[in-house]
Amino acid sequence: MKIKPIFYFTSLFLLLLGACTSDKESTFSESDINIIPQPNAIKLNSGSFTFDEQTQLVIIDTVYQELANVIAAPFQQAAGFDLRVASEKPATNYIVFETSSELPAENYTLDVTSDHITLAASDFNGFLYGLESIIQLLPLQINSTSKVNNANWVIPNVSIQDGPQFKWRGLMLDVSRHFFKKEYVLKTIDRLAFHKLNKLHLHLVDDQGWRIEIKKYPKLTEIGAYRVDQEDAAWNARRKPELGEKATFGGFYTQEDIKEIVAYAQTKGVEVIPEIEMPAHVMSAIASYPELSCKGEPIMVPSGGVWPITDIFCPGKESTFEFLENVFEEIIPLFPSQYIHAGGDEATKTNWETCPHCQKRIKEEGLESVEELQSYFMERMEKYIVSKGKKMIGWDEILEGGLAPEATVMSWRGFEGGWEASEQGHDVIMTPTSYCYFDYYQGPQDSEPEAFNAYLPLSRVYQFSPVLDSMSAEQKKHILGGQANLWSEFIPTSSHSEYMIYPRIAALSEALWTNADKRDWLDFTKRIQTQFERYEYAGINYAKSAYAVMAEDSVSMDDKQIILELKTEIPNTDIRYTLDGSELDENALKYSVPIVLSKTADVKAAAYKENKVYGAIFQQSYNFHKAFGKQVTYNTDLHKSYKGTPYTLVDGVNGSLDFHDGKWQGWLRNDMDITIDLGEATDVSEINVRSLESQGSGIYFPSGAKAFLSVDGNEYHEVASVENPAKKNPGRSFKNFKLDFEPEKVRFVKVIVSNPGQFIFLDEVQVN
C-alpha cells in the first residue's frame, strides 16, 4: 500500500521526536546523582536502565528473598506495578543478586547497564543498602505514599563500590518521657534503612514512664506506664503529683508489640537494642514497687523533670537484683540483639550514704565509697547479662569507680569518656551532646518548636567523627561508631519527633558511612535539597531550619548605627528582605551586603527558592528610641552570668527566645532598678520594658513595673505602674510592659521592675 507523502513525513517526524525525547530522558549528569550517604566510589557511565512491569528481581539464594519487598513495595505504591521475583535470569530487564564472599559485611557493588543491574554483596545488609541506593537513583516520586502518573522510572548507568566506615550507625528514641506508638517506631525503622543506619536504641525506661510489658511484674505497666497529665505546664516546672492522684497520660508496648517491632527491623537490617535504666532514672519502677528503693516509701511517677535524681534502686537489697534479673529473663528473649543497654547515668547517691542496706553491702564487699557501690551494681548486672550471652552497654558514668570488665561505653558527656574507655580496651559508641543530641534546637529558637536549650545545626552534625586524632591505632579499633539521641522531654508528638530527626539524620548517616576524604559540606547541601523533596513525597515532617535566616547584628554607639548581616546555614542562599514591615513578595530587596540601619526599622527576611519564600521568616524590630545609647545606672545587682553590656537595655536590639544569646540581662530574685540619663531635657510620654518567660528554665515574667521621672536626678515622681499576675505558661514567650503617661520634659528616667522571686530577663527599656 502506498503511503501518502504527508503521512510519511509526519510519521518520520514523530519517530525522530520520540527518539530525541528518549535520548533526553536517558541522559544523566553527575548532578543528577544525589545519594545520601555519599557512596565511597561512584562512576557515571553512558546510558540508563528503565524499570517497567516486566522488570524482574533475580534472587537465587532464598535467604535474601524477603529483601525483594524493599524495592518492590515502593514500586507497587508509587508506580502501581509489581516487580516479579525470579530464580533464573531472563535475557534482559532484571536485577540480579550475586553473592560475593570477598566483600566485607554491609558492603555492596552496584553495576547498572542498559539491560540489567547486578548487585553484589556478602550479607543481608549489603544487598539492602544496594537496593536503597537504587531507590535514591530513581525519580523522587518513588518515595510517594500514593500512586503517581507520568513518571519515567529510569536510573543512570553507574558503577558503585560502597561500604560503611563504622559498623554502629544508630538512633536512640526516648519513648519514656513521651510515648510513641508502635506504628511510628515501624516507620522510623524504614527511614533508618533508607539512610543506611543499622541500630535502633529504644530508651524504654525512665523516671517518667516504664514502657514495656513484664508479665511477672504487671504493676510496671499498670502504674509505671502512666503519669498525672501536666502537659499544660513546662516540663521542668511541673508540680510533684500527690499520692493517689489519677494518672492517665502514657502507654506501653506489649511483648507482642516488641516482637513485631523486632521482626520488622530484621527485614530492614536494623538491630533493636533495649535500654533498661539502672540504678537511676527508675522512679516509674519504684512507683510500681516501692520496696526497690532504699526508703521503700510510696512515690508517684513524676509528670516532668526531676533533679537531682535521688529515688533510685537500692543495691544493698538482694531483692533488687532478683527483680532486675527477673525483668531481663523476659527482656532478653524478646531482643535478638547482642547488646543490652543498662543505663548507669546521673545517679545521685545520697540515699545510699545513709541506707543501712547499702552501708552493709559496702562493708561486706570491701568497698570504699558509694561510687564503688555503683561499680559493684553495674559489674554484677554485667556478669548476669554476659551469662545470658549478651554484651552490656552503659552511659559513660559507668567508668566512675571502675568499669565492668566487658562493658561497652556509650560516651555522651563529650569524647573524654570514650577516649578513656578505649584506652582501657573497651568498645565505645560515641554520642557526644555537641554533635549527636537531636533534642537540641537546629535553627533560630524564635522560629523553631520548643526543644532543649542548646544548638545543634545540620552543618555541625555533618562534622561529627567518632574517632579522635589523639587516639592510638589500638584505641581506634575499639570505636564501633556513633548514634544520634532524641530525648523526648520537649517532644510530645510523632510529627515533632520527625521534625527533630530529619534532615539531621541524613548528615549523621554520611558522617558515619562515607570516608572522610569523600565528604564535602557544599556537595552535601546540594544533595540534601533532593532529599528534602523525597521527604515531602514520603510525608515526613522534616525541618527547613537550615534555610532559616539568621541576623548577626552589631551596634555602633559612636555612629548611632546598627549593622545587620543576614545568612542561612546553606551557602549561597537567595535571601530577600524588607525594612518597613511589609510582606515579602516580588518587591522584596535581594540581600547582597550588610544592611546599615540609622533609623527605626521593622525587618523581615527569608530564603527564597524558585522565587518563593522557603522556610521560616525572620522578623525583628530595631528601635532608635530616645534612650538609645544613653547612660544606664544599675541600682540593683545583675546576676553574674547575665550581665550583658552597659548598653544592653538601650541598644535598640531585642533578644531572642534563646536567653543565652547575649542580648538579655538577668536578675535572680532582685528587682530591676535602673536610671537612664537622657543627657538633656527631653519630652517623654511612654516607656516599654520587654521581658522573657521560660518557666521550664526558671525564668518568669515580672510581677509588675513602675516608671519615675526627674528633671535633676535627685527628686523623682512616679508617673505610671502596671501589675502582672503570675500564670502557668508551658511555653516560652515575650511580654511588653507598657507604661504611658502625660508628656513631660525630663532628663532622668527611673524604671523598677518587680521580681516574683525567680529569674527575670529583660532586653530593652524603650523610651519614647
Brief summary of the model shown:
Helix content is 25%, strand content 28%. The protein is an alpha/beta fold and 768 residues long. It starts with a helix and ends with a strand.
Question: Features of this protein?
Answer:
globular; seven-stranded mixed β-sheet; eight-stranded parallel β-sheet; disordered N terminus; 768 residues; alpha/beta; 28% strand
Describe this structure in words.
The protein has 768 residues and is α/β, with parallel strands linked by helices. 25% of the residues lie in helices and 28% in strands. It contains 18 helices and 36 strands. The strands form eight sheets. Strands 14-9-8-21-18-17-16-15 form an eight-stranded parallel sheet. A seven-stranded mixed sheet has the order 1-7-5-6-4-2-3, with helices on one face. Strands 30, 31, 32, 33, 34, 35 and 36 form a seven-stranded antiparallel sheet that branches. Strand 10 (205-206) and strand 11 (209-210) form a beta hairpin.
